[in-house]
Specification:
This protein has five helices and no strands. By secondary structure, it is mostly helical. It has a domain at about 30-79: Hypothetical protein, domain 2 (Endonuclease III, domain 1, Orthogonal Bundle), CATH 1.10.340. The protein is elongated.
Length: about 80
């Protein structure tokens, strides 16, 4: 259970996010696949680059099946 301080801090963070969040395509139409791809990309580079590459990657590999059926070379070329 969260302490009163933790609840206040959590609320502060949510309030900031609601007011000042940046708009990113991976926050729209959220699916497990898009979450996985965006999280991996975001761990490797800046959000400005992910914004561009995420759309391109999903155009070519729109779901787990298409990604699973691609060769490593195909994925790395798009990545």
């Amino acid at each position: 259970m969260l302490s009163v301080k933790n609840k206040k801090f959590t609320q502060l963070i949510w309030d900031f996010y609601k007011k000042d969040k940046r708009s990113f395509c991976w926050r729209e139409d959220i699916t497990p696949y898009k979450i996985l791809v965006s999280e991996i990309m975001l761990q490797q580079t800046q959000t400005s680059r992910v914004s561009i590459k995420f759309v391109e990657f999903l155009d070519i590999f729109p779901d787990f099946e298409s990604l699973a059926n691609a060769s490593l070379v195909q994925v790395l070329i798009v990545w």
